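In response to the reviewer comment on reproducibility (Comment 2.3), we provide here a single inverse folding case reported in full, input and output, so that an independent group could reproduce the run without further information from us. The structure tokens appear first.
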């Protein structure tokens, strides 16, 4: 299977050729996030309901609201470190540099503990979200929304993108700092009006209780609905198997899959791929994708199947943190 530099298994339309709601999302994320044509979202463009839902959850939780952007970036970095998603850790490092927190950015990028006790608690909570919440109760929708957004995004990125696009070591630190230019710094410091992404949504679903009346609620409900459409690509038996297997995970332990736990690639390739997307997306291989992605299945199908597995994992994390109170 031939890989492009960024996209492992799909061939998205060039962002400049985008029309309709996809073009609207790209325009809004360029203005509000500060990145044009971010690969995280371009890879979802084959399925606009997933694209709009993912963008809305990220915008309304991480970017808008009243919680500290620095603190929420630390949470997002903690989630990304726990999920072994180098691409996402790099993105949060850039954004922390853009806030002016250069020392914190470099500490997080190296996987070390921040000096500030509050940042240590937030990073730890991001790594394992079933512990006590180190943020004000009134900020709950934003922090939980941020954490769950990146549990979903990390899995999509690890399964469908090339993760390591920068060199390592000191050279990488310099590049990440340089990427946080003046324009990006101005963007991360802007106060964004909540709710502006909601008119872009193409699906709807019930808001979770933890979201209250925040715009994060309808955004998350829409993403959940869009992601579960992917279950229709599996037999009822395989979809139930994926859900039950992920539900048996504790919601936090890394590497919950051993080789013998996976369905056979030849016998049940769809269940195997969805389960990998949920619990070990960095272990998705060319052979796993090739076994399932055969005509008439398309990029649209692959993105939806990965999203279904990812959302099953997100819901397991959500269940654990709600139980923890």
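Designed residues, in position order:
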């Amino acid at each position: 299977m031939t890989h492009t530099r960024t996209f492992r298994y799909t061939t998205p339309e060039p962002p400049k050729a985008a029309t309709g709601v996809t073009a609207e999302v790209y325009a809004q994320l360029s203005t509000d996030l500060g990145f044009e044509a971010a690969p995280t979202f371009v890879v979802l463009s084959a399925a606009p309901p997933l694209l709009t839902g993912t963008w809305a959850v990220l915008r309304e939780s991480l970017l808008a609201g009243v919680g500290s952007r620095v603190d929420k970036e630390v949470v997002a970095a903690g989630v990304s470190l726990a999920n072994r998603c180098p691409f996402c850790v790099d993105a949060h490092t850039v954004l922390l540099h853009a806030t002016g927190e250069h020392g914190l950015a470099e500490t997080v990028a190296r996987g070390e503990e921040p000096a500030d006790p509050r940042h240590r608690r937030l990073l730890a909570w991001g790594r394992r979200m079933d512990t006590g919440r180190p943020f004000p109760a009134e900020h709950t929708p934003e922090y939980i929304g941020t954490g769950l957004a990146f549990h979903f995004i990390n899995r999509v990125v690890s399964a469908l993108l090339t993760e390591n696009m920068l060199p390592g070591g000191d050279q990488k630190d310099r590049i990440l700092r340089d990427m946080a230019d003046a324009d990006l710094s101005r963007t991360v410091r802007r106060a964004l009006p909540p709710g502006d992404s909601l008119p872009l949504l193409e699906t709807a679903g019930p808001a979770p209780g933890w979201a209250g009346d925040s715009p994060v609620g309808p955004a998350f409900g829409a993403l959940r609905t869009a992601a579960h459409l992917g279950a229709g690509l599996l037999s009822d038996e395989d979809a139930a198997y994926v859900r039950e297997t992920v539900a048996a995970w504790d919601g936090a332990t890394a590497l919950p899959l051993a080789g013998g736990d996976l369905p056979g690639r030849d016998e049940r390739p769809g269940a195997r791929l969805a389960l990998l997307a949920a619990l070990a997306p960095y272990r998705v291989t060319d052979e796993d994708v090739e076994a399932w992605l055969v005509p008439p299945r398309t990029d649209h199908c692959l993105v939806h199947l990965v999203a279904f597995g990812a959302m099953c994992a997100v819901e397991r994390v959500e269940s654990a943190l709600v139980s923890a109170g």
